[in-house]
Design brief:
Strand order of the largest sheet: 2-3-4-5-1-6
Radius of gyration: 15 Å
Shape: globular
CATH topology: S-adenosylmethionine decarboxylase
Number of domains: 1
Low-confidence stretches: none
Distance between the termini: 35 Å
Oligomer: single chain
CATH superfamily: S-adenosylmethionine decarboxylase
Number of helices: 3
Structural class: alpha+beta
Number of strands: 6
Strand content: 35-45%
Order of helices and strands: EHHEEEEHE
Length: 123
Amino acid sequence: MEYSTYGRHIALDVWGVDFSLLDDVEFLKQGMIDAAVKSRADVLSVTYKKFEPNGCTVLILVSESHLSIHTYPEEKFAAIDCFTCGKKVDPQIAINYLIDILKPKKMYMKKLIRGLDEIVIID
């Protein structure tokens, strides 16, 4: 079997998200799993931490790489990351689903293509 180093990586910052959503680890955990499944990723494991007094981190390990969210409910902010290797899984589908359920008032998205050997980096 031949493997490709090609991958797509989306980093998303969202602001203006309801405090109760960003502080609900069960909601976030299920939302992240659903996002991974909708993007056709193969979920391997789910790790999460509920912080006191508030905030959550959820990490979804998928065969194709990972999805993560780190929340700051008091700031109505979350940092979301979705990296997938290969072409089968579309990280934009996962990101779009998370935008739909979180309903941010403002967001900033950065998309990267990773692993292509013809990219030249100049210092």
